[in-house]
Amino acid sequence: MDLASLVAAILTLSAAFAYLNFRFIGLPTTIGVMLIALALSAGLLALGWLGVAGLPARAARMLAAVNFDKTLMDGMLSFLLFAGALHVNSEDLARKKWSIGLLATAGVLLSTFIVGALTFHLLAALGLPAPFVYCLLFGALISPTDPIAVLATLKKAGIAKTLEVKIAGESLFNDGVGVVVFIVILGIVQQAGGAEGAAGPALVVHALETFLWEALGGIAFGYALGRVGYYLLKSVDNYQVEILLTLALVMGGYTLAHAVHVSGPIAVVVAGLLIGNRGRHAMPAAARARLNDFWELLDEILNVVLFVLIGLEALILHWQGAYLAAGLLAIPLVLLARLASVGAPISLLRAAGREFSENAVKILVWGGLKGGISVALALTLPAGPERDVFLVMTYIVVIFSITVQGLTVGRVARRLSGD
């Protein structure tokens, strides 16, 4: 199937699923279309198990041609992050900067090691042993909250503004940190050959330098990108040119960030915050409204397509009993790690005099949704016996997070807040 036919098929499915959800199901659009895609995947898999191999095989080949990790990480992610950051108030983020910063850095690192350690023992107990460094890779890809899933859910969750800012701000930045941590650990795996104990002091120092360069360089690059975008938008009053400038900023900036080896996700988020809070205010009101409408529409379309692809990814996974058990057991494991990685930083901040509501930790844990970024990173894992089990584990955790947590986070937050 050529690229044009593939894009047409995915967009047609996305539109059909969105229509079915709106007319007959009534769930939030992203969750509804993903569940319909999951149902379709399950039906095709059932046909394959019943011996009707032709249609499921063709569907799996079509999906494999999409190359999900490249499609998301090198294509859709930059647009979705920019659109999300564009509508976040930077003054609100600044007031919560210590909370967001600590959760997005120390929280991700702590969760990575907790998930890695627990996964190492879990897989050994299930007869699926994996090297510890590979388990750390799983910890890195599953620890960050996904800004795409989080922002799509928060729009209708109706939770308190202060908590919404913390959850949204953390998700915007910790996915970039998580990607950097994943890249660093993957580099250790590739340089050390995955051997246990092969990561000597020099390799650890190099990993730390890479982490700092990627993360801090991403912030600096994103700030410079945002400033350039701000001055360009300020100097024109033409809707079409302004849209083109923002598209060029996102696509060109993300590509250039990768070229200079800094974090593209972090750079795009910082640039989006600057444009959203300074650049748009330098524009006339009518142009600002049109720019908002354009990015909101693009955000909605890409979100629907992404969640449809997540649902369809079930077709290309290797479903085995032991893998399924590992995935189901990984759900409480990941939630436990999230509890520790949120609880510890908040305890430190409370000791330093920062105020948090009584149930803030519980709400942040349940509101920390996983999403497409985790699936995309899992698909980049090195080929080997560990890859298949980690893919299934990631997928099960993500589906649980989006459906169960995503559908209940608003209710849980209101109940814990006393509303």
Molecular structure report:
With 419 residues, this protein is an all-alpha fold. It contains 18 helices and no strands. The N and C termini lie far apart (52 Å). Helix 6 (97-104) packs antiparallel against helix 15 (321-351), helix 9 (147-157) packs antiparallel against helix 10 and helix 9 (147-157) runs parallel beside helix 18. The protein is globular and about 60 Å long. The chain has helices at 3-25, 29-49, 54-66, 68-86, 90-95, 97-104, 106-125, 132-142, 147-157, 161-192, 201-234, 239-259, 264-279, 285-312, 321-351, 360-366, 372-379, 385-416.
What are the key terms here?
mainly alpha; 18 helices; 419 residues; 81% helix
The amount of helix comes to over 70%
Unreliably modeled segments:
194-198
Q: Can you tell me the overall shape?
A: globular
> Number of helical runs?
18
SSE order: HHHHHHHHHHHHHHHHHH
Question: How many β strands by DSSP?
Answer: 0
Based on helices, strands and strand pairing, what is the structural class?
mainly alpha
Largest sheet: none
Topology summary:
Blueprint: H1 3-25, H2 29-49, H3 54-66, H4 68-86, H5 90-95, H6 97-104, H7 106-125, H8 132-142, H9 147-157, H10 161-192, H11 201-234, H12 239-259, H13 264-279, H14 285-312, H15 321-351, H16 360-366, H17 372-379, H18 385-416
Helix pairs in contact: 1-2, 1-14, 2-3, 2-14, 4-12, 4-13, 4-14, 4-17, 6-10, 6-15, 7-8, 7-15, 8-10, 8-18, 9-10, 9-18, 10-11, 10-13, 11-12, 11-13, 12-13, 15-16, 15-18, 17-18
